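G., before I forget:
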Amino acid sequence: MKIAVCQFNPIIGDLKGNTGKILSGYMRAVNDGAELVVFSELFLCGYPPLDLVEKKEFRNAVRNAATDIASQTNHVGLIFGTITEDYEDKIGTGVYNSAVLCYDGKIQFIQNKSLIPNYDVFDEVRYFESAKDVFIHEFKGEKLGISICEDIWNDADYWKHRRYTIDPVQKLVDNGATLLINISASPYAYGKRKEKFEMLSVLTRNDKSPLVYVCAVGAQTELIFDGGSMCLNSSGKLDLLGKAFEEDYFIYDSKKKYDEIKKIESSFEEEVLNALVLGLKDYAGKTGFKKALVGLSGGIDSAVVAFIAVKALGAKNVHVVMMPSKYSSHGSVKDSGKLIEELGISSENISIQPVVDKTLEMLKDSFRGLDENITEENLQSRVRGLYLMALSNKHGYLLCTTGNKSEIATGYATLYGDMCGALAVIGDVYKTQIYKIAEFINRDKEIIPIEIIKKAPSAELRPNQTDQDSLPEYELLDKILRMYLEEQKEFEEISASIGNKEIVQKVLRLVDLNEFKRKQAAPVLRVSTKAFGYGRRFPIVQGWRK
Amino acid sequence: MKIAVCQFNPIIGDLKGNTGKILSGYMRAVNDGAELVVFSELFLCGYPPLDLVEKKEFRNAVRNAATDIASQTNHVGLIFGTITEDYEDKIGTGVYNSAVLCYDGKIQFIQNKSLIPNYDVFDEVRYFESAKDVFIHEFKGEKLGISICEDIWNDADYWKHRRYTIDPVQKLVDNGATLLINISASPYAYGKRKEKFEMLSVLTRNDKSPLVYVCAVGAQTELIFDGGSMCLNSSGKLDLLGKAFEEDYFIYDSKKKYDEIKKIESSFEEEVLNALVLGLKDYAGKTGFKKALVGLSGGIDSAVVAFIAVKALGAKNVHVVMMPSKYSSHGSVKDSGKLIEELGISSENISIQPVVDKTLEMLKDSFRGLDENITEENLQSRVRGLYLMALSNKHGYLLCTTGNKSEIATGYATLYGDMCGALAVIGDVYKTQIYKIAEFINRDKEIIPIEIIKKAPSAELRPNQTDQDSLPEYELLDKILRMYLEEQKEFEEISASIGNKEIVQKVLRLVDLNEFKRKQAAPVLRVSTKAFGYGRRFPIVQGWRK
């Protein structure tokens, strides 16, 4: 069968725009001789629609859009993800995450999702009920076994620990499916595309069935969908692979021989950089921002964010501001100047010192007799936030937050100061990873000045300050954080691995104590298996200590 | 049977403290001749523990604490809520939200929760599996039917629309339970205590079984648990009612006759005021803050918040700051002065004007040729935020955010400005409700100056500004918001009710567009059935419009 894979980028809730993408993709595929055209999970409403699903007007509009799309089909099949409802079901929500198959002017078949993920960033049990059963649909000589995303993530041959007792895809195979289709919207994390391929390879090989796996692409606030749709043959080999981090369209012929594709993923640096560029580009594009603003400190984080902004929006749409204080090193401004020139972006330089001094003057009665402390440091950062927000408000810039994951984890950031902004572009990237990305950016040419990469990290909020006055060396810190966050290891295991209980205790305590800051943080673009944001939920007020 | 109801206030994760509360309550009840002592849902670990449940070290510590508590029991029964695990279960989490019954030194019986709520603020499917079955446990001549919270919320006689297909409490009754026990942690919303009583009255009356319903009390960040434990006899009448918004302890004799209690709830104003006082008190107490700071604008919101802070922490622990600008009316400072005197709190007055002027001077090149707009208004609010945070940092004050629900809903608030703070004390209370609460505060004596109540609401960020320059009259606005948020009505229905499509469209659009601000807002104390925060989840980037 000739199947058109439509790996497109929807906007959540934009039914008109998404309908247009489905119809134009379908028409193109019909012209190209496809027999079946497939879009990703919940494409019609965008994924994840969150509490929009609870709105009846929204669900009705989705239903009408789906009916309208179906009415425009001919004999060529069209599968897309949408919300459906069982109006007869009087217990529970009666709402399903479904794949609908349309042809000859009607929705001919609906397969609801069986496995409803409810972990990490997934809250689907909040909205959707499980399919009561799965069914084969015969179409143009094939027995189609259609499933939705998580349905394919419970293969007994692949997983040591399974989340669910049932395996809907196995059931489709047992019922004689000759062609498996899975429509998916699986948020990106580095390493996951390779894992997905390995899982699907085991499944197709063991079940002796080809699989067309159609993935979402595009960023939806913090979640990035990386595309990389896959067509596997019944030997578990990869025949076709969709582009990563961009829209793609291609036709797969399940009867044809293909050369095996072996390269599934690029390097960490390249992948993550592309992911973040897409994340920022889509946040801006989907909210209508044309221009971005970055506060340039002279450090590596803001330099990398400025580079990402240029890739996402173009050099002419990126503006940076340097905001030195009396503690800023001469190098910081000079190095920033080199970067600005290299990137070809506009800039300005506004000292924070007069406003900091004026503020301290106004507060002097209140502060009388008290030593300088973190207050004065935070104040500098907050005056920078004040400037950045004023520039953003006045000129309509999207303000990019420049904090990295190591800082956000340990609370080494000022609430309402450097934490200001619409989107934390590198908030899921550790400091040590930022260095690697900077080196990757410089692989052919020095774009990020070497002085910025080489200098000791410093917030420059007091004389001769460095990050390591407050934090362990980043190599060690990030190692501990990665074990604690992504690998979900805990105190005893991390301590045994690091060989230093005090330092592990200190780091874990910093992470736990700073939930209150993260509650008020900008959304973080997710590129790891555990990002800060709604995939990680801890009480702000709590007493658990190890 | 004589049952001691222990309506106590746990701290999430504080296993040592919560263990102490269980043991001291148990000892007291043993001395008082109780035969069974009951604590609320997940009391040992605190509710909701959120992702702490995913930590193995945490679960192990909880298990050890439970075993330790059980080892200290004699023949008197002890029931408390805790996490248990099925280590043999290889599929899914194998983790349960359980009631354990201990006596004679051991855990003798475990009943797992059957109905796992996953809507609004509840994410329990993320952590807990459903009980495989429910069982009666015979103890001291009674057949105990033990259930946990949501288990009792699916009664077919009471609910028109049920969430779940099974009814575990009915099954316990069918299996011959002579005494029902439900341990609960059900977040407060005004009106819910009465609803709970009505539901439980139908259930006990129809099932002809008495019920001891033990509720959590205390605030856990944004969620407030109001206590109000209930003992109902087999005629569905209320025999005993626990105190609202404070810890309580009493013994219920299921064989004894009691006078029927008819008053379940106080007025809206009294209830909500008490809820907010508890919310702020527990946030401060459980995080170690002794003193609170409120920015006093001369308006009603900050006046009511200052009053709540005084009730929560005592007048000597509340400090307020007035931060006038050139747009502040003389009345604002004068009225604030009256309030400060009435409340007996400390205060200071620091003009923002010199810092605002200095900032505008620094930004003048960047702003050249552009008209004054919202930027300059936000800037004033942000300089106030700068002052408030500096005072909070320097003196260790808990900064109370003063925005009300009408403002947070419509985005009539400045991010990093008046939205600064650790806790949005009145963020779930509409402006029109704030007036009612102010009148209630003044019921015996004018505490909040009448001038503050009478003046037209204004942000005072430009000359002669009032809130109604940007928003509909609050009576109308709040009516629309209540329909949209709490009643979950949508555009067509609200428009039909209001009779003005444009105004409804404008308000709904403001609500939808301001998700980005609420993402970065302080936690909001929840007192309604739908508060901003994690019980309401909308995409920040989305295109749904009606």
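Chain B is about 35% helix and 20% strand. The two ends of chain B are 58 Å apart (CA to CA).

More on Monday.
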